[in-house]
Amino acid sequence: MSPPKRFRLPAVVSDFYARRGWTPALFQRQTWAAYLAGESGLIHAPTGTGKTLAAWLGPAIRLLREGDNATSGLRIIWITPMRALAADTEKALQETVDELELDWRIARRTGDSSASARARLRKSPPTALITTPESLSLLLTYADFQPKLKQLHCVIVDEWHELVGSKRGVQLELCLARLRSLSPGLQTWGMSATIGNLDEAADVLLGPAAPAIPTMIVAKQKKRIEIEALVPEAIERFPWAGHLGLTLLPHVLPRIESARSTLIFTNTRSQAELWFEAILKARPDWIGRFALHHASLSRSVRDQVEAGLKDGSLNCVVCTSSLDLGVDFSPVEQVIQVGSPKGIARLLQRAGRSGHSPGEPSRVLCIPTHAFELVEIAAARQAAQEHTIESRKPMTLCLDVLVQHCVSLALADGFSEQELYREVIQTHAFARLSMDAWQWVLLFITRGGNALQHYPEYHRVSQQASRYTVDNRRIAQRHRMAIGTITSDAVMNLKWSSGGSLGTIEESFISRLKADDGFLFNGRVLQLVRVRDMTAYVKLASKKARIVPRWQGGKAPLSTELSNYTRRLLGQADQHRASELRALRGLLRIQANWSALPKEDQLLLERIKTREGRHLFLFTFAGRAVNEGLAALAAWRLSQDSAVTFRAWANDYGFELLTASDYAVTVDMLRGALTIDNLQEDLVQSINSAETSKRQFREIAQVAGLVFTGYPGSGKSTRQIQASSGLVYDVLAKYDPDNLLVDQALREVMRYQLEFGRLQESLEQIAACEWLVTEPERLSPLCFPLWTERIRAQTVSSEKWRNRLQRMLDSLNRAADKKTPRRQRNTP
Amino acid sequence: MHIQLQGETLWLDAGRALVWPAQSMVLVADTHFGKSAVFRRQGLAVPEGNDPDDLSRLSKLVQTHRARRLCILGDFVHGALPHRHHFYTRFNQWRAGLEADVDIVLGNHDRYLNTAILKNVHWHSRLHVGPFALVHDPEDATEGYYLCGHIHPVVKLVTRADALRMPVFWQRRQGMVLPSFGSFTGGYVIERHASERCYGVGPESVVALP
Fold first, then answer.
1. Could you say which of A24, A144, A720, A740 has the lowest number of CB atoms within 10 Å?
2. Are residues B44 and A612, on separate chains, in Cβ contact within 8 Å?
3. E-assigned strands of A74-186?
4. Are residues B188 and B30 in contact, defined by beta-carbon separation less than 8 angstroms?
C-alpha cells in the first residue's frame, strides 16, 4: 500500500465531514490522494465503512478544483452489478452533491429506465451516470453517445468481486477498453469484498496495458467474525443425510425470539420455502413481522420485504442468496445459516450482515442439516481464522461475448478491423486472442460462419474495406434487445387467477403438475388453474397436501478451499477440540468400525454389495463438479474393455459407481481408470460430451446472437429456445465442425463445469494417496448421504440397447412380482 | 416385430414406420419437413440439414418393404414455407423418383401448406383403409380403429442401474399412435394405462414393453 500522500482537502469536503462529526478514514484519504495523483486501483473495504465516499470524492475533488466549466459533459461512470443497488447509490451520491452545493446532475440508466429517459440521457448526459454493465454496453451501441465520452475522467466499478469471475465481467472489460480508447487517461477504480485473488482482480479491471500497477487501498477490518454451530444433543438420532434438516427447528426458534432481528439464509429456494412454512406453523402469531425473500418472488413482494428490513417492521426474514449483496439495509442483530455455506467467502459475507455496533463481533449461527455438515462448519471457521478464502478466477477468450461486443460497436458508428483488434487485446480476457480467432469472429458476424453463409439474416455486419457497420434496422433492433450475458432459465410468470402477480416459477415444474396438485409458494399452498402465454394462473389450494417446487440453480458445490479443510479436519477428528467434531465422535467411530476413517493423505474406497448390484464409493473430497467428472471418466474408461452399464452419482465428498451384480470392478481396474494419461481426450469422450456441452451451448448461442429470445411480450417459450439451441448445436457440430463457438462450449464445460484444473489435481492426489479399501456389510455413514440423495444420475454404457432394455425389463418385472417391497436393509 | 391388430398382421419397423404387408403400405407420422427454415424465421441459427436425410430414409423404407403405397399421417411440414422454398423442388424431385403412391393426411401443422405446389400426392383429411381410420390427431377419429400421429409418444424407463428413453408405438384401446418420424422432432413422455401396450423403438429393433 502506498503511504498517504499529502494534499489539502477542499473546505467544502472537510465541512461536509465536520457537519456530521466524522473525520475521513485513513483509507478514504489514501484513495483521494491516489486518485488526485492520477492513479487507478482497487479499494478493498467492508460494507458500511464509507467506501462509496472513498471512491466518489476523489473525482469530485478533482472536478471541484477544476472549477465551473467541468460540469458540462459526462465525467464519471459508476458501474453497479445490480439494478437494486443503483437506486441506493444514486441517493447517496445526490446527497453529497446537494450538500456540497454543486451544480451537477446525477442520473441512473438501468434496464428499468424508460425509453424517453434513455434518449434524453444520451442527448445531454449527466455529470455522473450510474449504470449496469449491460446498460453500458447498450449505450455504446448508439452513435450519438460515444462522442459524449471524450471528457470522461473516471469509471468506478462497485462490487467488482461479483463480476470478475463471470461473462458479465468480460463484457465490462471490453466496454472499459472502449472507454479508454475514447478518453485516454481515464482512471478506473474498483471496489471489492474479500476474495482470494484481490491482486489479480485489480489487474483484470485495469487491463494488461495499464500504464502502472494498480494501487491497492485496504481498509482496516476491525470487526471479528464468530462462526458457531448449533450442535444437536443426541447425534445418534440426528439424520446422517437428507436436505430438509428441520429437526433442529425447536432449538432455532428460541434463538430467533431472543434477538431483535434475524436473517435466516438458506442454500436453495425450496429450502427457504420449507423453513418459512415450518416456522409459521410453529409460531402463527409472527405473521406480519416475519417474511420470505427469494429471487422467484415478484419484484414488489421483494421490495416490500427489503423496505420492512430497512424500517425495522420485520423481525425475521428467511432468504436465499437473493439478499447476499446489494440491498443496503441496516444490519440485523443475528444471522443464521441453514445448511453448510459451501464456501468461506459466502459465509463471511453473510455473517457481515450482523452486528455493526462498535466493538461487537459479527456472529453467524450455522444449523447443520445433516451430520457431516458439522465438519464443514468447523472447517469454515478454521479457514476463516487462517484467512484462507476462495478466489474468483477471471474468464478468458469468451468468443460469444466478443461477437456480441463487435456487433454492438458496428451498430454505433462502425469500427475498423485493426483499431478494434488493438483495443480488444488490451483486455485481460482477450490479451491472448489469436489472429485466427479474431478473423473467425469477423467472418462470423459478417457471413454467419460456414454453416449459415447462405442465410442473409446472419450477415449481421457489413464490411466495406476494413470498416464494419450494421445497415439493417431490424438487425440493430434485435441486437439491442438481446444485449447482455445473463441468460434466463425457462421460467413462467405466476399470477393469481383473480389478478395480481406472485413471481416466477420453472416451466418444467409447472408442466409436471397434475390437475389438482398443490404446491408451496411464498408460504402458501397454491393450485394451478390454467396456463396461458407463459403465465401460470393459480388459486389457493383446497387441500393441504403439497409439493415443494425445485428451482434450478440448486446448490453450489463445496469450494476447493473449504473441501481441503473439511478433509483435513475429518482426518484429525479424534483429537480435534472443536465442539462440532466432539459431537460427531460417536458417528465417526461407527464409520471407523464398519469401514475406515481416512486420514488426510489416505483415500477411502468402499465396495458394497446390495440388492441393487455392486457399488463402489470413492471419497476424494474434491467437490461435486469434480466428482461428477471423475465418475464419468472412470465409468467411460472401464466400459471400454467390456460391455457394461454404469450408473454414477456424485456429491461433494465422493462418487458412486453402480453395476449389475454379475460385474465386479477390481481395485486395480479402478486405479487404472483414474490415471492422468490422455486425460483431456478421454474426458471429452466420457462427459457424454454432446449432452453436457449442449447445455453450455444454450448460453453461448444466446450471447453470440445465434438464438433470438423474442420481442418482449411475444410469449415465445424459453424452453422452446432452449430445446432449439440444443438443436443448433447438433446441426453446427455436424455441418460446421470448425465453428469456434462449438469449440468454446466444450472448453467452458471442461473448465467451468468440470473444473478441469481441479480435476487434474485431484487425479494426481488419487495416484499419490494410500488407498484404504474396505468391504462394509452395509452402507457406512460416509456413503449414506451420497446413496440417499443421488442427484443427477449419469449413465455410461457400452452394452447393446437390446441387452440393456432386456435387463431393465427383467428387473422391472421382478419388482412388480414382489407385491410388497422389502424394507431397505441399509437404513440406519 | 410383427403384431396382430384388428385381424391384420402389421410389422413395426425400427425406422419409426408401421408396415402393412397385406396392403403393401408403409405408414409414418410427423415428418415435420422444413423445420429448420421455420426455426430460422423465429430467430434460431439452424442451417439446413435434415430434410434430404429424412426423404432418403422414406425411400429406403419403401424399397426395403417393396411397398406400393406410402402414407404420411400428418404434420408433413413443420410450418408455413415461403413459395420459393427449395423444399418444394427437393420434394418433387424425390417424388418423381419414388415408385409408389403417396397419401398424405393433413395435420395441424399443415394448415398453411400450399398443396398445389407438391406434385403427384393424394391429400386427405382422413382416410379409411380396411379396419383402420388413418388420421393425424386421435381426436379426429370418429369411427373404426385409428392409426395416428400427433403425439410423438416417448417412454422413459428408469431402474436403479440404468435409464433409457425411447420413442414408442403406443397401442391404445381405440387406436395405435405412431412415433414421430422427423429427425428434428422431440418427444412427449406418455402416461400409460394398464390396458395399453407399448413397443419401444431402438437403433436396430423394436421391442415390446411390458
1. A144
2. no
3. 76-79, 106-109, 128-131, 154-157
4. no
pLDDT computed for residue A458 by the predictor:
76
Q: What is the pLDDT of residues B80-120, one digit of tens each?
A: 887 788 889 999 999 999 999 999 999 999 988 888 899 99
Coil/strand/helix, residue A530: strand
**pLDDT tens digit string along B112-147?**
888 889 999 999 999 999 999 999 999 888 888 999
Lowest mean pLDDT segment, chosen from A41-55, A236-250, A513-527, A643-657: A236-250
Distances in Å between the Cα of A255 and the Cα atoms of A224, A258, A716 are 21, 5, 47
Q: Closest by alpha carbon to B45, among A738, A744, A698, A443?
A: A698
DSSP three-state, residue A434: coil
With CB atoms and an 8 Å threshold, state whether B43 touches A612: no
DSSP string, chain B: -EEEETTEEEEEETTTEEEEGGGTEEEEB---BTHHHHHHHTTB---S-HHHHHHHHHHHHHHHTT-SEEEEES--BSS---TT-HHHHHHHHHHHT--SEEEEE--GGGTT--GGGS-S-EEES-EEETTEEE-SSGGG--SSEEEE-SS-EEEEEEETTEEEEEEEEEE-SSEEEPPB--TT---EE----TT-EEEEE-SS-EEEE-
User: Has residue A639 got a pLDDT over 50?
Assistant: yes
Pick from A458, A734, A805: which is nearest to B202 by CB? A805
Q: Which of residues 636-665 of A touch B (CB under 8 A)?
A: 645, 647, 658-660
Please report where in the chains the cell 468480460 appears, as a residue.
A170
Task: Label the pairing between strands B8-13 and B2-5.
Answer: antiparallel
Q: Which of A317, A747, A297, A755 is nearest to A556 (CA)?
A: A755
Is A448 close to B49, i.e. CB distance below 8 A?
no
Say if CB A59 and CB A154 are below 8 A apart.
yes
pLDDT of B170 > 50? The answer is yes
Q: How far lies A666's CA from each of A629, A643, B150, in Å?
A: 20, 16, 49
Q: CB–CB of A811 and B209 under 8 A?
A: no
Q: Is B44 in contact with A724 (Cβ distance < 8 A)? A: yes
pLDDT confidence band for A484 (50 / 70 / 90)? confident
In the stretch 735-774 of chain A, residues with CB closer than 8 A to chain B read: 735-736
Write phi, then psi, for A230 (nearest 5 degrees).
Answer: -85, 105
Residues of B in contact with A794 (CB under 8 A): none
Contact B124, B69 (CB under 8 A): no
pLDDT band at B4 (very low <50, low <70, confident <90, very high): very high
pLDDT digits over A196-231, tens only? Answer: 999 999 999 999 988 889 999 998 766 688 899 998
Average pLDDT, integer, range A128-146: 93
Residue with cell 474408461: A637
Joined grid coordinates for residue B51: 430434410
